[in-house]
Structures are given as structure tokens and as C-alpha cells.
UniProtKB/TrEMBL annotation:
InterPro entries: CodB. The keyword Repeat does not apply. One of its GO terms (molecular function) is cytosine transmembrane transporter activity. It comes from Arthrospiribacter ruber. This is Purine-cytosine permease. PANTHER family: CYTOSINE PERMEASE, CYTOSINE TRANSPORTER CODB. Residues 1-23 are annotated as: Disordered. The keyword Membrane applies. The chain crosses the membrane at residues 108-130, 150-168, 180-200, 225-244, 265-288, 308-329, 350-370, 376-393, 414-433, 439-459. Coiled coil: none annotated. GO terms for cellular component: plasma membrane. Keywords: Membrane, Transmembrane, Transmembrane helix.
Length: 468
């Protein structure tokens, strides 16, 4: 029999961490629409948009690739993640613990927490590019990997400290700040995109083509992006959330599966409108005398969100960049803190979150995390997505394969080797192929996910047949 958790234990914090969400707490689509729109129109958008241009992508490849790639992401949330969330109504962490065992979930939490810290660090970098403008701070170059000035270090440390303190105040403070800021950020992205397009002389598809054309050669150190790069990046940049099942923790509150469609608000407000707006801002900067002088001297123009937004919409742009980085880093540090809290349950949540913020701030000192955000996000999704395949394949195929579900908790195991072996083998094989042949990692996220699920079925069948 499965070990059960008492209602008191499961609701100790009111979040039902270790029991299914009761029907009285189910929420309609209205509760999710604004959340997804705000979460995906944030700090990362200011960096990812310009990075598409540094990859030499054409206007057609970017726009059509984003339209289709984001649609595939929405379909994945709707038909892969949400049905599992409403069927189980458990957090990713507890569901994974039931299958994989507590010790293995501890390792997952460590990987998850560290990746969250690096992402939060990139967002601290984003906010710092705006805060540093009044101090005439040298902006990090696209190729910078380490701090380039003392002023950069001081600004990042200050921004990181403020963000960490807010995150340590708990989820309510983080959520209130994000909800207040979301409409402002979306409005600034839209206005900035329109202003940049007007200043570029774009008023039709043909004029956009004249400005953007068929793309260009990628900047030094960048790979050339095609339609397929854009499509797969847009689909899998959030692979940890949908294929990786991280959003089980959110969508378990959904009253019906159709709630999964609300993710379109995030994809098409953030990962379409905001990315293209940021692209247009960078395209405008590339036509400036400053950028021309940098190109002439053999340098590479910086991709610094603060100066880009300030040039287009002034002080409102600076404020938006600061808030955008803040609203992404805050919940990311909070989530990383929760992951580390699970590893060190006796430690104070506030202390763990502050230490987590310190790690993120140190990461923010190194511009490489932001300047290589396309690559980092691809790696992030690739590492965490296969874990979701374990949950998906078990849910739909365990009975057909003739082995039991939730094996670890039913057998009192703390470590299910079938899960670890499937995860590591699938990642190692496809990551090696990507590196050896120099192929963009997002192309292998889905194959690694499928391979992990199939290997898990084979290993679980073998493991459980040996134990009988």
C-alpha cells in the first residue's frame, strides 16, 4: 500500500505540497491568464530579442519561426502538461518523489536550484545595465565573460542584494510586485517596439524587409540562426516548464484542461511581441553612429538592455528594464530557495533564500550568463525536460507495460535507479552528439525527452520484475 500523508501534514503551509489539490481550490482560466502573460514578458525578453539579431536571423525566419514555435509550446502545455496536472493534482516535486525516491529528488532539486540561480543572475545583469547608466558605467560586451569594471561589480552587488531581500520576504511579496509590474512592462514593450519601428521607417512588410532583409552573418562567437533554430528555440526554451513538468505545480489548480490554452498569453505577449520589440530596439541601435564606429574599429556592439530601452523610450525604458529584471529574478530566486530548502529542511527559509540570492548575485557579476542566454536557456531546458518524460511515460504506459506506478513510495525506496539511468543516458548521448557535430542543443530536447521516457519504461520493467 502507498504511504499516505495526513491532511495536516499536506497543508501545513496552505500549499498542499504533499496531497492532491481539493476541488474547493480549483481555479478557472481567469486566474492563469494574467500570470502567464506577466511571467513571460520580463527581463529575459530584453536580452533574447537582440541576441536573435546577433545570430543573423532573417525577418521571415524570426517572425514565422516564433509564430509556429510558440504555438507548439502552447500545444505542449495544453495536451502534455495540463492533463497530467489535473489527473494527479500534485506538485512536480512530490510526484517525482513518489516515482524516483527522496534521495534522487534531492539531486534533482540541487540541479534545478543551481540552474535557477544562474538564470536569476542573468536577470540581475539585465537590471544592472539600467541602474548603471546614471553612473556612466561601462556596459558588458557581447563577448565579456568576467566583470569589466569596479562600477559594474558595485552596481550588480547592490541590485542583487535588493532583489534577494525582496525574495526572502516570501511568495506573497514576490507575487504582488510581479502582478503590479506586469501591465507596465507589457505596455512599455509594445510602445518601444512601435517607436523603434517608426524610427527605422518600418510601416509595412516591404519596409521591414528593407531594414531587416534576409538577415546577416552572425556576430563573432554566435551561430547562424535559421527558421528551424527559431522554431525549436521558441518551442523548447520553456521545456523545463512543459515537457519537464515543472508547471504541474501551477496547473494542478486548474479546474479543467482547457486552462492550458492560457499559456498562449505568455507566448504571444512575451515570446512574440516582446522579443520582436527588443529586436527592433537593437536593430535601431545597430544603425547608430556609435554602433557604426564600433564595427569600423573591429569591435562588437554591446547587447545591453538598459541603453537600448533608454534610447527608444527614455526614463520609462530604464524603469522597465530594472523592473523586468527584478520581476524575473525575484520569483526565480524564490523557486531556487525552495529547491535548496528541500535539501536542507531544517534551515530557515529566509536564510536559504538569502544565500540563494547571494549565489545568483555572484553569477550576475559574470555577463556571460546574460550574453549567452540563448545557449543557457537551451541547456536549461535540455537538462530538466527529460525528468518530465518519466512522469508522462509512467502515467500513460505503466499499466500497459505491466508494472506499478509510484514505485519508490510504494516500496519504501529512497532511490530508484531506473529514473537516474534513463535521465543520465538520454542526456549524455544527445548532448555528446550536439557537441561533437556542433548542432544547436534545442534540436535534441525532444529526442532526449522521448529516449528518457522509453528507457525508463524498459528499466522499470526490468527492475520491478526482478523484485517480484
Amino acid at each position: 500500500m502507498e504511504k499516505t500523508t495526513s491532511p495536516k501534514e499536506g497543508t501545513v503551509s496552505g500549499e498542499f505540497e504533499r496531497q492532491p489539490i481539493p476541488s474547493s481550490h480549483h481555479k478557472s482560466w481567469k486566474k492563469f491568464l494574467g500570470m502567464y502573460a506577466g511571467e513571460h514578458a520580463a527581463g529575459t525578453e530584453f536580452v533574447i530579442g537582440p541576441l536573435f539579431l546577433t545570430a543573423g536571423v532573417s525577418a521571415f525566419d524570426l517572425i514565422v519561426g516564433l509564430l509556429l514555435g510558440n504555438f507548439l509550446a502552447v500545444l505542449t502545455w495544453r495536451y502534455v502538461t495540463t492533463p497530467l496536472a489535473t489527473a494527479e493534482r500534485l506538485t512536480l516535486y512530490y510526484k517525482l518523489e513518489k516515482i524516483a525516491g527522496k534521495k534522487l529528488v534531492t539531486g534533482y532539486n540541487l540541479a534545478n536550484g543551481l540552474l535557477f540561480c544562474f538564470l536569476a543572475g542573468a536577470m540581475i545583469t539585465v537590471s544592472a545595465t539600467a541602474v548603471g547608466i546614471p553612473f556612466d558605467m561601462p556596459m558588458p560586451a557581447l563577448t565579456d565573460t568576467v566583470p569589466n569594471s569596479l562600477s559594474w561589480v558595485l552596481v550588480v552587488l547592490t541590485v542583487g542584494a535588493v532583489i534577494s531581500i525582496v525574495a526572502a520576504r516570501g511568495y506573497d511579496t514576490v507575487a504582488k510586485f510581479s502582478n503590479w509590474a506586469a501591465p507596465f512592462m507589457i505596455a512599455v514593450f509594445l510602445i518601444a517596439g512601435i517607436v523603434a519601428a517608426n524610427r527605422l521607417g518600418v510601416d509595412s512588410w516591404s519596409s521591414l524587409w528593407a531594414v531587416w532583409g534576409e538577415g546577416s552573418e552572425p556576430f563573432p562567437g554566435q551561430i547562424k540562426f535559421t527558421f528551424w533554430h527559431v522554431l525549436f528555440f521558441a518551442w523548447f526554451c520553456n521545456a523545463a516548464m512543459h515537457l519537464g513538468m515543472s508547471d504541474l505545480s501551477v496547473l494542478r489548480y486548474a479546474d479543467k484542461n482547457s486552462v492550458g490554452w492560457t499559456t498562449a498569453a505568455g507566448m504571444y505577449v512575451g515570446h512574440f511581441m516582446a522579443w520582436i520589440s527588443a529586436c527592433l530596439m537593437f536593430a535601431l541601435y545597430l544603425k547608430s553612429p556609435e554602433a557604426a564606429a564600433i564595427f569600423t574599429s573591429g569591435g562588437i556592439p554591446p547587447v545591453a538592455p538598459g541603453p537600448l530601452a533608454y534610447e527608444v523610450v527614455g526614463i520609462a525604458g530604464l524603469i522597465c528594464v530594472v523592473i523586468a529584471g527584478w520581476t524575473t529574478a525575484n520569483p526565480t530566486i524564490y523557486r531556487a530557495g525552495l529547491a535548496f530548502q528541500a535539501i536542507f529542511p531544517r534551515s530557515s527559509t529566509v536564510k536559504v533564500t538569502l544565500v540563494t540570492g547571494g549565489i545568483a548575485t555572484i553569477a550576475g557579476l559574470f555577463p556571460a550568463f546574460a550574453m549567452k542566454l540563448l545557449d543557457f536557456v537551451a541547456v536549461y531546458g535540455f537538462i530538466l525536460a527529460p525528468v518530465g518524460a518519466v512522469i508522462f511515460f509512467e502515467h500513460y504506459f505503466a499499466d500497459k507495460m505491466g508494472f506499478g506506478k509510484d514505485y519508490a513510495i510504494n516500496k519504501g525506496l529512497t532511490f530508484n535507479w531506473a529514473v537516474l539511468a534513463a535521465w543520465l543516458i538520454s542526456m549524455a548521448v544527445f548532448y555528446s552528439i550536439s557537441v561533437y557535430f556542433g548542432i544547436f542543443l534545442s534540436f535534441f530536447t525532444l529526442p532526449a525527452w522521448i529516449a528518457c521516457g522509453l528507457l525508463f519504461l524498459v528499466f522499470s520493467k526490468r527492475l520491478q520484475s526482478q523484485k517480484k
